[in-house]
Structures are given as structure tokens and as C-alpha cells.
């Protein structure tokens, strides 16, 4: 295996693994539960794009400056993620309480997904996973290739999550409405609980 292929493969694999971080699943699952999974795939895709833009921006700054990410920046972004997850969970409960006779617009789903992804991509381990290895590479172009493959891996994995959520909600909606409602409730509880756990850990 050539060094170039190793760098690109590690970047892609790191992105796939990172997509399954609990806070990512809490956000995508919580938002998907709001509309019974109608926009799960759409939300997952736009979340991945927002996340990728944030990581790409941080990577560019690190490669140009040749320095690591300031701790205060990551800590602030982590706190934003925590409050965002709590908000997602509360909104999900609100929609459940109203039995939401109306649905969010596709444009609204896209906007919220991109913003959630941007905040996630700016926080915690995502920039570290993608950027710290890139900063030690021989050239900025190779470093950016690593980051781009990281983003591709993450988007591919989150797309699979979106498909699974959409299929799961659709199946339960056709045959087991009570179980579908239970899954929506669990998704909201998980988002709120994980948000509070992030706050308490800082």
C-alpha cells in the first residue's frame, strides 16, 4: 500500500467512523423523529455538507497557519452542540405533543440541517480527526486531500444512517404506529440526555 493511498484511506475511514459519534446520531435521529422520518435522508445529507464545510474551513486555517486548533474554540463549539441537542429534543417533543398536523418545509429542513452540521463540524473531535494528521503531512495539497476524503467518508456513512432512519420510520408507520411514536420519543429523549451529559462533562 503506497503512502498516498494510506493517507487517503485513513481519511475516508476516519470520516466513516466519526459519522457514528453519539452526538451526531442524537442530532440526526432527533430531527428525523420530528416528521416521522419523511426528511431523514435529506437532513442527513445536508447535515453532512454543513459538517464538511466546517471541517474544510478549520483544515484550511490549520494548514495555512501550521498550528493546532485553540482549545477555547473547541470548548465553545462543544457547548453549542450540547445546547443544540437539547433544543432538538425539546422541539421533537413539541411536535409529538401537537401531533404536528403540518410538516416542516423542505427548505427549512435543509437550512436547519446545514446549521446543525456546521456547529458539529466546528466542535470536538471532528476537526482533530481530520486536521491534526493533515497538519503533519508533507504538503498542503496532500493534507487537503486527506480532509476531503474524511468528508466523503462522513457524508457516505451519514447517508446510510438517513436511509436506515427513513426506512425504519416508514415501516413502523405502516404497521406499528405505537412503536413509531415510541421511537420518536426515544430519539427526543436521547438528544436531550446526551446534550445534558455534554454540558455536565465540561
Automatic annotation (TrEMBL):
<keyword id="KW-0472">Membrane</keyword>
<keyword id="KW-0812">Transmembrane</keyword>
<keyword id="KW-1133">Transmembrane helix</keyword>
<feature type="transmembrane region" description="Helical">
    <location>
        <begin position="77"/>
        <end position="97"/>
    </location>
</feature>
<feature type="transmembrane region" description="Helical">
    <location>
        <begin position="181"/>
        <end position="200"/>
    </location>
</feature>
<protein>
    <recommendedName>
        <fullName>Nickel/cobalt efflux system</fullName>
    </recommendedName>
</protein>
<feature type="transmembrane region" description="Helical">
    <location>
        <begin position="147"/>
        <end position="169"/>
    </location>
</feature>
<feature type="transmembrane region" description="Helical">
    <location>
        <begin position="112"/>
        <end position="135"/>
    </location>
</feature>
<feature type="transmembrane region" description="Helical">
    <location>
        <begin position="43"/>
        <end position="65"/>
    </location>
</feature>
<dbReference type="InterPro" id="IPR052776">
    <property type="entry name" value="Chloro_ReproSupport/MetalTrans"/>
</dbReference>
